[in-house]
Amino acid sequence: xxxxxxxxxxxxxxxxxxxxxxxxxxxxxxxxxxxxxxxxxxxxxxxxxxxxxxxxxxxxxxxxxxxxxxxxxxxxxxxxxxxxxxxxxxxxxxxxxxxxxxxxxxxxxxxxxxxxxxxxxxxxxxxxxxxxxxxxxxxxxxxxxxxxxxxxxxxxxxxxxxxxxxxxxxxxxxxxxxxxxxxxxxxxxxxxxxxxxxxxxxxxxxxxxxxxxxxxxxxxxxxxxxxxxxxxxxxxxxxxxxxxxxxxxxxxxxxxxxxxxxxxxxxxxxxxxxxxxxxxxxxxxxxxxxxxxxxxxxxxxxxxxxxxxxxxxxxxxxxxxxxxxxxxxxxxxxxxxxxxxxxxxxxxxxxxxxxxxxxxxxxxxxxxxxxxxxxxxxxxxxxxxxxxxxxxxxxxxxxxxxxxxxxxxxxxxxxxxxxxxxxxxxxxxxxxxxxxxxxxxxxxxxxxxxxxxxxxxxxxxxxxxxxxxxxxxxxxxxxxxxxxxxxxxxxxxxxxxxxxxxxxxxxxxxxxxxxxxxxxxxxxxxxxxxxxxxxxxxxxxxxxxxxxxxxxxxxxxxxxxxxxxxxxxxxxxxxxxxxxxxxxxxxxxxxxxxxxxx
Length: 598
Hints:
By secondary structure, this protein is mainly beta. It folds into 3 domains: 14-23 and 517-597, Immunoglobulin-like; 25-120, Purple acid phosphatase-like, N-terminal (Immunoglobulin-like, Sandwich); 131-494, Alkaline phosphatase D (PhoD) (Purple Acid Phosphatase, chain A, domain 2). Helices cover 13% and strands 34% of the residues.
């Protein structure tokens, strides 16, 4: 990261950070684009975030859902209000939809349209479904490289939905975890995130990555968190990366959960209910069962591992999972899970007690339940460990299921592939690759379930190039992984046009723009962070004014390159009240907002 020490007129502290995260010129005031998620047969969550002119007042937002990208065959529409209590995010559960159908959607606020999004509903639970495909991703460290795997997936256009298995963001400070010196991407805020405003700002920066935006814009996502959405190696009552000097864990966990539900298209079970374990029916072919192995019921890692009552899921979630598995009528039961389920040992000793290896009694209980209740075609999909694996899930002399592990988007694996050595001691490992980044394609039909691993060429440059590495499958009722001769192919049903990148009100990119994206916190007592983006090189002038127009603070001659930025400055000397923050660039573009000084 590069930092500029800016000449200060009246502010005692001000920092500037360059990043490669810059929104398209045409999307103002929807700088964070649109997203959809949690598809059911008759509804789907649609999402956006509005950047208001005034961060102290609510914004009215209209939405429409249509069968066509021209937005003429409207199926449903409505109006909602957003404000600072949800960081001006907008989340609508669009109902009255038809199953297994593509839809386009958009929002309108402050006189402008958002980009259009494309989404797809799930089939009816009782529908006969021939085949399904899902993209499986996890572990996107912004500082570790470009999100080329997201871009590669956005260009494929051949799957139902994106299954995000966690570590959508990382909580670390700038340079705190695997920074890549070849890229200009930095964590914002630059300190380790602890508060609600911190988590919101981190999501804000992530959501302006254009590859991530494109993948959100064109596919529904089904998301669960892992640990880095809160803190490293989190559990119900704490985390490895949390100490007493960082406040109460309960406060930090709640802030992380609230920001996750604000910034991602996930359906809440009830207001302020942040449970993420839930099931999605995809006809008679797949039941997708998503669990929380982090914050709901997990006991601390490395403590009393031989205790038969020790839990990863918590008693209520574990009972729910058994019930969903036992009552499922789908051919394939797919468990969306954060951490590795299968055992992995070196010299007879488990090597990762943060995974299910640290909770062996509960894992064995679940394996026994599968066998005793004749639950076939149990498949686990996993993220977390930044590397690629496939396992037979052995229960004595029989297999209770299989497991596929997706590589990371950017987070580092190992410098060399020591996988073959692990396979010698762990013959149930049928594939392991420990160095590459990319994604997994899960392809399911009535005959078999197959995982295809794809690796990107680089993280150091914006490059969507990728290649197929490996495919393994398990036949219906068999649960024994076999090598496939090549990757699966998609049906023609996925051949639907993507959503246009720019809103329909703007056919061409504007030459210049300047936009305030967020102010944190608001109200503020001392330090105010301003997040803004621009397309114009040259001087910027910042002014803080009272509501009568009087200039209280002013800074001029700030020469900056093409980027977005966060500026943190000290307003503790201001009297309590409402103030106007105004930024003007060299072309005369002005962006302003109000903030409250307590």
